[in-house]
Amino acid sequence: RAKEVPGSHFVLYDSTLAYEAEQRMMMEKDLRLAIEEQQFFLEYQPIVHLETGRVKGFEALVRWQRGDLVVRPDMFIPVAEKSGLIVPLGKWVLAEACRHASLWPADVGVSVNVAGEQFKDVGFVAMVERTLAETGLNARRLTIEFTESLFSVDVDVVRGSLSRLRALGVKLALDDFGTGFSSISHLRCFPLDTLKIDRSFTESMLTDEREAELVGVIMKLSQAFDISTTVEGVETESQLEFIRKAGAGDVQGFLFSRPVPVDQVPSVIAETRNRQRKNEALPVAASAAIV
Ligand code: C2E
Ligand code: MG
Ligand code: MG
Ligand code: MG
Asked: Which residues form a coiled coil (predicted)?
């Protein structure tokens, strides 16, 4: 509870909890306004097919233009989720991403992150369908990314929604795999197209043998289930070499490109096409030098 200090304009708090609650309320208020005023924009990070070097698609990542500051999603998505504001925000993200992607080459897809809270909304799948119709984006070019936290939402509802999305042709990716309560049963019980192996593995696989082993196992397991893999957070050539040996798949990370504004998407696509034409190894630096 806040206490006025006599004779000053400072306010003391007798618990950090109260302080945090207040911070969250303030952020919630700002977020609400930000949604009304559309203070958000999307950046896009390429997802690259390792063997061919082709850009398969881009992941849409939301940013909040808060005055002069650009706020990263980790700072406000949790608040948006707790307050339910993720529903209107997520709806905007999806529509914006589909609108953008409908202007890209037809073999380039778009991935959109969807929070568990959005799945709880009974109209979610219908909203996705409407958005695809309105933007003219082929459902097959859309991937919806969700995390394992989704499985703590009502399992039957989730399974139902995922199946309906898939029936539309939308692809499904399990994001940040290996960080939550990962379970093999998730692979058995839910329709999935892609596993995104979390960046924490990419960070540790070169120094920790057991982590490296785990990455190999996850890749093999995915193959057995006919699920593709995307390795997140690839920053170095040596990580790339490791992934190549472990079974390739798709890769995403700063080594290829940081998330870029939408107007740079065509040049990212063109760059990789040029590289492919010249038969150059991926990415920029030649991997032949590494061996
Ligand atoms: P995510 O879905 O796992 O997205 C990947 C994050 O890793 C992005 O952070 C990206 O910039 C970062 N990243 C990519 N490559 C590298 C790399 O090589 N090294 C390092 N250090 N980082 C890399 P970002 O944009 O800050 O997003 C953070 C998280 O916020 C996302 O993690 C996602 O969970 C969430 N998020 C972003 N946009 C949305 C959205 O529209 N809706 C929802 N619900 N969540 C979102
Ligand atoms: Mg993601
Ligand atoms: Mg991820
Ligand atoms: Mg991640």
From this structure: none
The SS3 call for residue 256 is coil
Quote the CA–CA distance of 261 and 249 in Å, as a whole number.
25
At 187-196, the pLDDT tens digits run 888 889 999 9
Q: What percent of the chain has pLDDT over 70?
A: 90
Render pLDDT for 3-13 as a digit per residue (tens, 0 to 9): 555 655 655 55
Instruction: Give, in order, the Cα–Cα distances in Å from 135 to each of 4, 44, 58, 257.
Output: 54, 18, 17, 27
Distance from the alpha carbon of residue 125 to the mean position of ligand 1, in angstroms: 23
pTM here? 0.91
The dihedral sign for the CA sequence 48, 49, 52, 56: negative
**200 alpha carbon – ligand 4 mean position (Å):** 8
**Residue 226 DSSP one-character state:** T
Mapped onto helix, strand or coil, the DSSP state of residue 279 is: coil
Measure Cα distances from 9 to 5, 12, 148, 207 in Å.
7, 10, 46, 53
| Cβ(235) – ligand 1 distance below 6 Å | yes
Query: Which ipTM was obtained for this model?
Result: 0.98
Question: How many whole angstroms from 100 Cα to the centroid of ligand 1?
Answer: 19
Q: Is any atom of ligand 1 closer than 6 Å to the C-beta of 176? A: yes
Q: Which two tokens stand for residue 141?
A: 């070019």
Q: Is 77 in the pocket of ligand 1 (CB under 6 A)?
A: yes
User: Which amino acid appears at position 79 of this protein?
Assistant: V
Please state the atom number of ligand 1 nearest to the C-alpha of residue 72.
26
**What does the alpha-carbon distance between residue 90 and residue 35 come to, in Å, rounded to a whole number?**
10
**Residue 103 is encoded by which pair of tokens?**
């202007």
